[in-house]
Amino acid sequence: MAVGQQVLSGDGDLPALERAAEVVEQLERDRRALHGRALRAALDLHAAQCANGMGLGTVAQLALSLDCSELRAGQLLTQAQVLGLLPDALEALDGGLLGVEQAGAFVTLTLVLSDHHRSVVWDRLLERLHSGAPMSPARLREWLARAVRTADPDGAAARRAQVGDVVADRDIDLVADGGTGLYATVRAASASLSKAFDPARINAVVVLTDGRNEFPGDSNIDSLTRELSNEDADRTVRVFPIAYGDDADLGELRRIADASRAAAYDASDPASIDKVLTAVLSNF
Fold first, then answer.
1. Do 57 and 172 sit in the same domain of this protein?
2. Which residue of 185, 253, 277, 283 has the lowest C-beta tally within 10 Å?
3. DSSP label at 113?
């Protein structure tokens, strides 16, 4: 058996398993605390830049210091500025209560809110984190989307009205006729949007599909979900699949959505497509 492929078995292996689990948990706590330190450092750098009349150059300097792209540096600074205004947010990272991915999701989904409404959502999230209730990245995003709508119902209504206008203006006759290259389409769309990723805009793909993957040139869903889940949490292109027609495989679409920290929707009844599109776009 190759190194790294041993299978733990028997009571004698339990102490080793527990020690390994403790190491992994400690590393994750350290990663969260280090992220909090990085956000504070970004705020300090920005304050120094502004004091010297060079505030507009913070992102470039941050990218140089971190040896990363200006896109990534801009996301880090935005996250620092948002979380830095919220009570106990950076401290939640320090103590391991708030995860790095959770922090990124919170900032991304609450950018549409005012400072007051964002603070309301943060208080609710902090309470949930203290309760110890586990949430996967996809479920957290769903919870945050609901919390955003609840905190600012007027804003949510205005966004839904805008979405309704877009849906009403469409001039498309949807016909489910089979021949689906689902995986290849999702890969291509996600890759294209990743190349043009803009943290100031919505980076998501809505996939309307009438069936299962039927393209033999790309038939590996495990490979697709790995690619989607391995994306940097701050650069995630979310994929929202919509099952349209009776032949669509909703379970498969949910796997794709979960991997990209999004959600899948069921429009197997064609008459429901307007409501489903509105529900999908209300995430934004």
1. no
2. 185
3. S
